[in-house]
Hints:
The chain is of the alpha+beta class. Helices cover 24% and strands 30% of the residues.
Amino acid sequence: MTLAGYAAAAALASAGRTRRPRAVPQATVRPAYRRNGLGGALFGQAVDLARTIGYSRLLLESPRSWAGAHAVYTRHGFAPVDAYPESEVPPDLKQYWIHMGRDL
């Protein structure tokens, strides 16, 4: 059996301290399985999971070079946002990353 990819939704550290619980959806697909819709399907499952759990806002960050991933995120309703306080990207590297978000 080969693991082709996975999906998850992780809570942001400050989610419990805000009125708008937020999560970071994640999906990863091994290179040999990309470009066939699996990433979009997995990412959609992560978004659905976050909605089911009760999150009201989703945020994510990824390197600017991940054009394929950004297309998936956009198809799922994400749009660019300013870097958020919980971002783990070091300040001197933020220019190389894209932050995106969407309300549920």
